[in-house]
Amino acid sequence: MIKISLKFFALLTIIIALSGCESGGGGDNNFPPQVSTPKWTWISGNDTVYQPGIYGTKGTAAQSNVPGGRACPVSWVDSNGKLWLFGGAGVDSASNLNDLNDLWKYDPTTNEWTWVSGSDVYGQYGVYGTKGVADPANIPGARQAGISWIDAQGKFWLFGGIGYDSASNQGPLNDLWKYDPTTNEWTWVSGNNVGSQSGIYGTMGVADPANVPGARFDAVSWLDAQGKFWLFGGIGYDSTGAGYYYYLNDLWKYDPTTLEWTWMSGSNVYDQIGVYGTKGVSDPANIPGVRTDAVSWLDSSGNLWLFGGYGLATDRFYGELNDLWKFSPTTNEWTWVSGSDVQRQTGVYGTKGTAGPSNVPGGRYGAVSWLDAQRMSWLFGGDGYGSTGGGGFLNDLWKYDPTTNEWTWISGSTGYGQIGVYGTRGVADAANVPGARQGAVSWLDSSGNLWLFGGEGWDSAGNIGLFNDLWKCTR
Predict the structure, then answer these.
(1) N or C: which end of the chain has fewer CB within 10 A?
(2) Is 417 inside any structural domain?
(3) Number of folded domains that form the chain
(4) Which helix (H) or strand (E) holds 156?
């Protein structure tokens, strides 16, 4: 079973996954002192959906520049506090809908976007060049739902997604790219330059130059304290070469120094149910079930955390999940921490602003997450279940404290399908709130503000579509 959205574009029919994307926490960002009521500010972009991109001149910032509406791009924050955005399924400069490969930079101090690299029109194939060699002509193909990391030298890394390979064929990818923002050059580092490749798993726990994850999209990622890259699950190809893509629960680690992948945990075949064990107790047999569009973060002890997504529960049905997991790289064991082992659970919100042991977000996929300096985890939106039966796009903001194992509902609605309240551009207001959505991306700036861009959901006029709005949440 594959849960993806279908979009029919002019002149062709393509399958694209608008069902959210990975958004990982992690990183040591310093938050300002806690305030009682977070305030959202509409910063940039439009309050209505399906807006085309205004690219301007490549490499030149301008107040009028803005990326087009999109879902499932990837994001990075550089050492100077600039916010970066790549690709996604969205609207190009000519108002066409399809996968994109444009790279953008946003400067919070000037409130200006810069089109940095890639094309302003959709459907571009990848130019790979020679593996391991940077070149100004290299560029990843248009794609959505990839994952990203930043290394210790400030280079940006991009893996997979669903999009266009070197032959201009569209499908899941397993290519690994590195981008140097100082030289504006891409390097194809690992994986294949054609799509729909099966994984080469090797021996669990053993790094090998031949190992590589199968092509996939909507996985999740972490960056650990030692600078290693981690990825989990998504929809893609397992070790069997089955000829089609399925849900996965494999955990991989990549060393950017040795350029080697290691299969760490999970199965090398698709459609595995979760083994939950006892809540709060780690066990070598525990493993999250296959899933897509979950969120992730890293704690102060180096543990990897995973929440929700769309996947296979213990009842052997697919659905929206609200299970919270912790993985210890030291013991190589998973712990089921919170939430249910059954899909499609409604949220228990409690009192806004008040933590409680019974509080828990409802099952969802395509949410975004952040991690603050106090290692509190933040979760926004997605497609799933609020406090009542029936699912849809959400705009609730939650905080999770790993020391108390308690969730707090912070802002937004307990129901689904809420329209955005934009207020005045550039003015914070307690009444402002982004519309319900999934498939957005998030950043943390050096001052600890939460940033949110795009996705698919409800705009200020009550229409559903692809956003290009940029929001900042000050706490």
Answers:
(1) N
(2) yes
(3) 1
(4) strand 156-164
